[in-house]
Amino acid sequence: MTDYSEEQRNELEALESIYPDSFTVLSENPTSFTITVTSEAGENDETVQTTLKFTYGEKYPDEMPRYEIFSQENLEDNDVSDILKLLELQAEENLGMVMIFTLVSAVQEKLNEIVDQIKTRREEEKKQKEKEAEEAERQCFHGTPVTIENFLSWKAKFDAELLEIKRKRMKEEEQAGKNKLSGKQLFETDHNLDTSDIQFLEEAGNSVEVDESLFQEMDDLELDEEEDDPDFNPVDLESD
């Protein structure tokens, strides 16, 4: 006859020796305890962790222990689901034998796989961001390829904008023409205009300054020798 209590007690002693810092007894009747499992550190020292809670039944190990995720850190919901499925599979395969160490070891390997998946996912995200950045830079240099459709669309928009600019300019010129006064209207609205020229002359005065340096002295002028002859008579030239 199997002594279930003895097997359970021996396993508890072994577990406490294997996991001295992470093994905690919660109750003795029924026997319930937790073991905290932490993954190996990843590339950036990130880790994932879970605390497993086990409870012995009266006929353990001939019946599966009850198990649950007591707490966890950095695990996604799908990771928790995968761990529970793994525990169920391992418990069924090891039914009839003490199995807690086997279950914990399987979870330990699973956590290490999750850390590797996190590393792979981050590398893929980094590559994707680099690819998107390269594509954006390439678009800046090459621009959008010109097709008949997008050219016609651009031309229609350009023509509409140009037409609107012309309309605004014509409207402004028309408005400016309406506001411009004729000469008669200027005199009628500003009575100072009819005396402005007289006022300007009065302010300038009647004196005119002459710059004598602009004129040469008479001595500098070259005259013909015949004109200097005292006996010169213009009539003689006519008779000749």
TrEMBL record:
Pfam families: DFRP_C, RWD. Keywords: Acetylation, Coiled coil, Phosphoprotein. Residues 10-114 form the RWD domain. The keyword Lipid biosynthesis does not apply. Residues 108-175 form a coiled coil. InterPro entries: GIR2-like, RWD_dom, UBQ-conjugating_enzyme/RWD, ZC3H15/TMA46_C. Residues 209-240 are annotated as: Disordered. GO terms for cellular component: cytoplasm. Protects DRG2 from proteolytic degradation. PANTHER family: RWD DOMAIN-CONTAINING PROTEIN. Belongs to the RWDD1/GIR2 family. This is RWD domain-containing protein 1. It comes from Vombatus ursinus.
